[in-house]
Amino acid sequence: MNEMVQKPSKPGDERATRQRAAREAATTPGADRVRVNDPDRTMANILQVATAEFADKGLAGARIDEIAALTSTSKRMIYYYFGSKEGLYVAVLEEAYRRIRRIESELHLEDLAPEQALRTLVGFTVDYQLANPDFIRLVMNENMHRGEFISKSATIQELNIPVIHAVRDVYQRGVAAGAFRPDVDPVDLHMSISALCFFNEANRHTFGAIFKRSLDTPAATAQRRESIIEMIVRFLRP
């Protein structure tokens, strides 16, 4: 049977209600239901496997059958948890953004002097994207969809508010201290940081092949990391 892409479920309350129902169903006796002992762990396992599948093959290429085969659940239960293939894809995007924003919140930038806070944030972004190529591929795939599915997720919109607040706080403290110039928009600054860090990972293979440079050595990685940090810091200096 050909796998069909079903209509995406609405993110938010509907998904939370469905997942609560799935947890209850997972422990309810029934001859035709797949039961698991730990629904939360099952959903986490599904999201982990689905992340790799969607990052590698995109929404169109990924198959629920393959995701089910690599997890401790069934195709039927995946649809029960997430509603549809597109619902699972949105959940994967949400988890990807939730993870990076959660770690960012643990940097405690407010405890650092403005320039050091900026260096810490940029360095973290370089390191995270280098260590998490699946995040890069998911974002690239979603851009191929012109942001269609991210725009449907109120969760992703909310998850990205704190990072703008953090960038704005660091920047405004730097302006007040005379360390940064006063005419930069915080969203534009966040975009500039993301652009440099994203390109560093997304284009390393093509850039390395075209210019005959090995960009994967520890020395090359450290040099590029420092260059990105310096570009952002010097961009903000008065």
UniProtKB/TrEMBL annotation:
It comes from Acidovorax kalamii. The lineage of its organism: Bacteria, Pseudomonadati, Pseudomonadota, Betaproteobacteria, Burkholderiales. This is TetR family transcriptional regulator. Keywords: DNA-binding. Pfam families: TetR_C_29, TetR_N. The keyword Cell division does not apply. GO terms for molecular function: DNA binding. Residues 63-82 bind DNA. Residues 1-37 are annotated as: Disordered. Residues 10-23 have a biased composition (Basic and acidic residues). Residues 40-100 form the HTH tetR-type domain. It comes from the Bacteria. The keyword DNA-binding applies.
